[in-house]
Automatic annotation (TrEMBL):
Record bears the keyword Cell division: no
Organismal lineage: Bacteria, Bacillati, Actinomycetota, Actinomycetes, Kitasatosporales
InterPro entries recorded: Peptidyl-Arg-deiminase_porph, TAT_signal
Organism superkingdom: Bacteria
Protein name: Agmatine/peptidylarginine deiminase
Keywords linked to the UniProt accession: Hydrolase, Signal
Pfam family, one: PAD_porph
Signal peptide range in chain numbering: 1-32
Signal keyword on record: yes
Length: 386
């Protein structure tokens, strides 16, 4: 593999490697206060009613999608920020064709958000944000099958205090309050993109992202597993080793492996010639899933979603994330990225159409967001119908 291919290797996820050091230090005091308020408002511990409430799989009907509007040049840099905002607006407008979208925005940037998103997207200023990663900072909604809805917060701490997050640390509980549902903090620190659920008792996650001194110091895998199952209403966790220290998320599972249904998963596969750590990680995830059973004891069925050739995509940025697997399932559609490798883009669209029959597959050019190491799933959070 040549140097370009190594730099653009499958899953090169150094999200926002250009973060300004000032952005990490300036909010220290505010962050500590915010985290203290969050824990005081909703004590850390096992999620309420874990036996009856469960996080459903993503393809259930949604009431709405939650998103967040980025406006920080200290995080994104002035040159990239406008492009990322354009990508966020494109995603919001696309999802809004299928279900309501609420965009959380700071008051100073709300007018710009409304202008770029258009009238189909509701822009809300009562829930301030630091950045756009609603999958990670937002609440995880749960249903009980009898019309009940509640929300769990994963105690977001900026991916192990790597980024300013005083506002984002409070987003989950503030959205729950806006919706008017009970809110509980989970017994772990994590992000929504770090945990995939099949809605029937099985979770999957990478050890690299959650067994972390920056997120969960002193917690064993068994303790984390217990806390995850309590929060999600699950009973089994499928673990992958993952990749530590190469990106801000420490290898979120939702960039590589996803659940489509109970007992059905997919993995984005690298090219046969890719040999970097992320390619090895993807192959290991596929092998693990292929030999695993679900919480109910059934064999896992695993589909492959072929990733693009990084020598053929539009971006030449070494931190670019070209993840088809980081798609979002909304009412009637699957919204995924396309990256300029025409053959791979078409093949991915065909695969998603086959795996999600009856849904429109929308492929979007989100290269600016991909340059920041994220994708469509990273910036969306579903609120399921109770």
């Amino acid at each position: 593999m040549n140097e370009h291919a190594v730099n653009h290797s499958y899953g090169s996820l150094r999200r926002r490697g250009f973060l300004a050091a000032a952005g990490l230090t300036a909010a220290g005091a505010a962050l500590a206060a915010a985290e203290g308020r969050a824990r005081a408002a909703s004590p850390r511990g096992q999620a309420a009613a874990a036996g009856s409430f469960r996080v459903p799989i993503e393809d259930v009907p949604h009431t709405r999608t939650w998103m967040a509007w980025p406006d920080s040049s200290s995080i994104w840099g002035r040159k990239l920020l406008s492009g990322v905002q354009a990508d966020i607006a494109l995603i919001a407008r696309t999802v809004a064709r299928y279900e309501p979208v609420i965009m959380c925005a700071n008051s100073g940037s709300a007018a710009g958000a409304r202008s770029m998103c258009g009238s189909s997207v509701t822009v809300l200023t009562s829930i301030p944000v630091d950045d756009c990663w609603m999958r990670d900072s937002g609440p995880v909604f749960r249903t009980d099958g009898t019309g009940g809805l509640d929300a769990v917060g994963l105690n977001f701490n900026g991916w192990g205090k790597k980024q300013t997050h005083a506002k984002d640390a409070l987003v989950a509980q503030r959205i729950a309050a806006y919706v008017g549902v009970p809110f509980t903090s989970a017994g772990l620190v994590g992000e929504g993109g770090a945990i995939e659920q099949d809605g029937a008792g099985t979770l999957m996650a990478t050890r690299s992202s959650l067994i972390s001194a920056q997120r969960n110091p002193g917690m064993s895998q068994a303790q984390l597993e217990s806390a995850m199952c309590a929060a999600y209403g699950a009973s089994k966790v499928l673990w992958f080793d993952g990749v530590s220290g190469q990106d801000i998320t420490d290898d979120h599972v939702d960039a590589t492996s996803r659940f489509r249904a109970p007992g059905e998963a997919l993995v984005q596969m690298p090219l046969a010639t890719d040999t970097d750590v992320y390619a090895k990680d993807a192959r290991q995830q596929y092998q693990t899933l292929s030999s695993s059973t679900t919480a109910s004891g059934g064999r896992m069925s695993v589909s492959k979603l072929q990733g693009p050739d990084y020598d053929r995509i539009r971006s030449t940025n070494r931190d670019f994330l070209a993840s088809y697997a980081n798609y979002y399932v909304c009412n009637g559609a699957v919204v995924s990225g396309q990256f300029g490798d025409a053959q791979a883009d078409a093949a991915a669209k065909a695969t998603l159409a086959r795996l999600y029959p009856g849904r429109v597959v929308e492929q979007l050019d989100i290269d600016r967001l991909g340059t920041g190491g994220g994708g469509i799933h990273c910036v969306t959070q579903q609120q399921p119908v109770p």
